[in-house]
Write a structure and sequence with these properties.
This protein has helices at residues 27-31, 47-59, 61-66, 80-90, 104-108, 152-158; strands at residues 13-18, 21-26, 35-40, 71-76, 96-99, 112-115, 120-123, 126-131, 134-140. It contains six helices and nine strands; from the N terminus they run ββαβααβαβαββββα.
Length: 159
C-alpha cells in the first residue's frame, strides 16, 4: 500500500556522500522540524530524470526555498557514489542526493517500481512535500517516463 497525504514517513536511513566520505542520514535528521521537498526518480542519469526532472529543481531551488522549504532532496535506488557523481555533473549544490540502494525506503512507502531493464526495484517517479515528517503533498506519475505532476512547477503550485 502506498503512502498518502497525512501519513508520517517511516523511519529509514539513507546513504549520502559528504566531503568527509560516505555517511548516513536518517529520516529523523532529514525531516524533523523541517519542511522538505522530496522527489523520487527511477534512476540517476536516466533520460527523463537527468534531462527533465532534476533540472527544474536545480533551476527553481531558490524560489522553492524562499517559500519556506528547508531542504530539497532527490532519492533514487542508486548507490551513493552514483548519486554523488550525478550531483557533481549537474552542479546541483542546492539539493541533497539520497541513495536508497536496496530500495528499502522506497518499498516501505509503497512506491517501488519493478523495472526489469534496471535489474532491481527502483522508485516510481514521485514528489512529496513533508512538514515535520508528515506528508502534506503527494504526486506519483502514472509511468516512469512521465513528468506531468512531480516537477518543480507542481511543487511551486502546491507550496
Amino acid at each position: 500500500m502506498s503512502i498518502k497525504v497525512g501519513d508520517t514517513l517511516p523511519e529509514a536511513t539513507f546513504k549520502i556522500k559528504t566531503a568527509d566520505g560516505p555517511a548516513e542520514l536518517t529520516t529523523k535528521a532529514l525531516f524533523e522540524g523541517k519542511t522538505v521537498v522530496l522527489f523520487g526518480v527511477p534512476g540517476a542519469f536516466t533520460p527523463t530524470c537527468h534531462m527533465n526532472h532534476l533540472p527544474g529543481f536545480v533551476e527553481h531551488a531558490d524560489t522553492i526555498k524562499a517559500k519556506g522549504v528547508d531542504t530539497i532532496a532527490v532519492l533514487a535506488a542508486n548507490d551513493l557514489f552514483v548519486m554523488d557523481a550525478w550531483s557533481k555533473s549537474t552542479k546541483a549544490d542546492a539539493l541533497t542526493f539520497l541513495s536508497d540502494p536496496s530500495a528499502d525506503f522506497i518499498k516501505a512507502i509503497g512506491l517501488g517500481l519493478d523495472a526489469p531493464i534496471f535489474g532491481a526495484t527502483r522508485s516510481q517517479r514521485f514528489a512529496l512535500i513533508v512538514k515535520d515528517g508528515e506528508i502534506t503533498f503527494l504526486s506519483v506519475e502514472d509511468a516512469p517516463g512521465d513528468l506531468k505532476s512531480t516537477g518543480a512547477a507542481s511543487i511551486l503550485e502546491a507550496l
